[in-house]
Amino acid sequence: MRHFLVVFKDLPIDRGSVKSGHNSREVISACRCVNVGLFVSGDLRRDVTVSFGIGNEDDLKVISFPGVSLRRVSPDERSISFFLLKAVEKVETMTQGDRFVMDNGIELICSSLSGLIESWKSDLILVPPSNPERFILDTNLTADRMESNA
Asked: Beta 2-8 vs 48-56: how paired, if at all?
């Protein structure tokens, strides 16, 4: 099981940008992280979760795309950004300690970074902030090769 966490200070997303396809750099990066992290040859990596922490270390709004339970999300940026928008709108109404699972399987948590690390333990891979989608892609490709050789 691999669980990637990308932390953003802010994830500027709004309905107009999503509808027009003119998303912020952060949203584009988040969409690409979901795409390369979860989608492979017309299927999902069921053993991978891609999460985004939004805010500061003491008060993160966390949105997780778990491959094991994700439904109705396509690999294209517009689809991912639409679901990301819905998740951001919902998680913004939550308070510290709250957890919620959306009907499409996306999980929302309000927690501190240390609380997340403690609860996710060995599955967690903290992703470097520069070019996170490339890091996730390279990690998955390496893991896929190791699994096929085992």
From this structure: parallel
